[in-house]
What does this fold into?
Amino acid sequence: MSRTTTVRRVTVALLALALLAAVAALARALPGAARQRDAACAGRSLASWSADAARTGEFARYGDHDTPADDWTGGDGTHSLRLPDGRTLWFFSDTYLDRVHPPPNPRGEPYSWRTADHGGTPFLRHNSVVVMDRSGHLERTLTGGGAAPGPFFPDPRGGWRWPVHASVEPRAPGSADKVVRVLLWDRAPGTGPWVFGQPRGTEVATLSLPGLRLEGIKETVGQRAVADPAERVLYGTAAVRDGGWTYVFGGDDPPSVPGSSAYLARVPDGRLADRAAWRFWDGAHWARGPGSAAPVLRDGGRRGVGSSFTVVRDGATWVLVTMDTGGTGAAGLSDLTSYWACSPHGPWHGPNGRIAPPRPPGADPRYTAVYNPQAHPEFSASGQLLLSYDINWIGPPGESPDSRLNDNVGLYRPRFLRVRLGPAGP
It folds into this structure.
């Protein structure tokens, strides 16, 4: 054997030993990193809250003013997005576009809401966008065109669209041109228990910046092929960016039970409108097809989420806030609760804590629903999270909701809380 051959063999052996040492070090480091992450991730719960009267009052002020006569006077499905120029967009699902005739009563007592154009019937559209200026002043309502104001995101054939989470992204990966992407829920009228319509799929709309022109809408997660509407999952009630990904949360919508199950998808940052980029958590891996998705938080017993919920990061901890669908009595339409996890796919621990948010003054709690908690991190400060919730009238039996909302528009407007998170059990 030549000296050269011997040197080569020794060199190869040393390289192999070095590679094994590196692999062993990595194997030791990964559990250490996991332990470090778990040590930083601590249980969180809804600890305390206070009413944000200023934010609630700003929406009351804007809804009550009479110029113009066809702007936002009330709505639900409240989501927000801060734009690069400092403005904030507020996205609403079902929306009343009308005029509140003076004198608006600041104590929330009944007052009339009438226009000659439609004989006193509230002018309902399926969505709208309200623009807030950099100072926090609501200034205008964006609607669709036509002879009368229509939904900003036009109704699809045989159905309607509800906007949920939105974000600012590059127009294309690597592009300096920014656009707004808005996740939409496509729904269609239903019968029987489907009083709020049947889910059909998740779409993504693109808006120009800074002009906010609607450029187009694409379907990203179609669900029409799922035979049972109760098993269809709509994505976008919450989304959180982390580590180069946007984690998009969604839920099924079974009409016969109080709770829903939460599901999870992820998309590389900047590719929400790219259908091929979506991946779905199947319980162990990220799968290509939405049919492989498995719940990350399954309903049943004391557990479950409302059809709309919100997710935020508190340090290393993920926190999900929802209606207390597993609570006793009507807690699913009155109380908020939370879950926590160390990763977006869980395991999720809870429910933890409970908040019963205030209703408008004078509202009968038996018939006034609280729902759709949504976090607004762009307005959070001093460790307090801004949380909105929606209000609606659900009774008594035989009474028209439109009639009651006509008399007191405060029963169909978002309200706001400042919420502080605190420790929770394991």
